[in-house]
Design a protein that fits this description.
Elements: H1 6-23, H2 30-37, H3 41-44, H4 64-76, H5 86-95, H6 104-114, H7 129-139, H8 141-144, H9 168-180, H10 188-197, H11 202-214, H12 246-256, H13 264-267, H14 292-301, H15 323-336
Helix pairs in contact: 1-2, 1-5, 2-6, 4-5, 4-6, 7-11, 9-10, 9-11, 12-15, 14-15
Length: 338
Amino acid sequence: MTRHSAGHLTTAAGAIAVLLSACGGSEPGLARGKLIYDACAPCHGEDGAGREELAAPAIAGASDWYLKAQLLKFQGGARGYHHTDLEGLRMRPMSRALFADRGDIESVVEYIVSLPIPDPPPTIEGGDLEAGEAEYLALCANCHGRDGRGVETGVRELDAPSLLHLNDWYLESSIAKYRDGARGVGDAAGTTMRAPVADFTAERISNVTAYVMSLQRLPRKVAAPPPPPLDPVDVDPAILPEGVTLAMAQAGQEIFNGAKGICFTCHLREGTGGPLAPSLTDAEWLNIDGEYESIVKIVVAGVPQPTQYPGVMQPRAGRPLTDEQVRAVAAYVYTLSR
């Protein structure tokens, strides 16, 4: 059992008491958020630029949706659950002092977003920029964007936050936590994040961090445009196995490339493949023979120990896919290589 210092516990308890007593009668909004933030400032700083000695990251440059999502994850136990994540464990009681019926989360997020955006300077030496760029473009850019500004699709499970205006020490520690299972377990977005970094060494983490820190510091993040529309599934119905229809393949396309299935996060859009998972558009199959029923079975069972690619495939993609939806995804995948 991990024991925390009395100082950490006293700080958290005292901040919660201040928050509750100061905000009891105020209306939701910016003014209330400023009062609530008084309990956050001892760790994250008055300006939201973070404090390295407390391992509290810069938060002033984050998007409102991301801040809300993280506070809810802390409240619900999807973050700050692991005994080695001391910073997360310290944050959980703070988050639980925020009350939904009082608009506390919305209020404090509104205030944080109103703060000037910090531009934390690099504090860690080393890291190979060229190697980090290659790693980032291969493993990170599909979700966070080539420029690190993040991607907002409107579907929260597919959205990825901006990586700009973050501290380098926080980037390194966060990647390591995802890798080690101290963050992202039992969380759809976290599971997506864990796969690319599962086998990262300290050197690879350092390289990627150095590259992210080298990206141009942009003003308040502007959401990247949504991806282009998917090409219609257009195959000769005669090639489809018995019981499989074109409508099934069309439904499977939406599941594969969307929030329901999130298959594209490893196999990329339209199954073209990448560093995490193989292409599904050729005739080469690694674990099965490529026939329809075999595809159904592997989607159901997953690939817990991949041999040639690092991306672990969870059963049913780690999503609550019904048998009908699994068969639709299999129908779509079947058409990709034919």
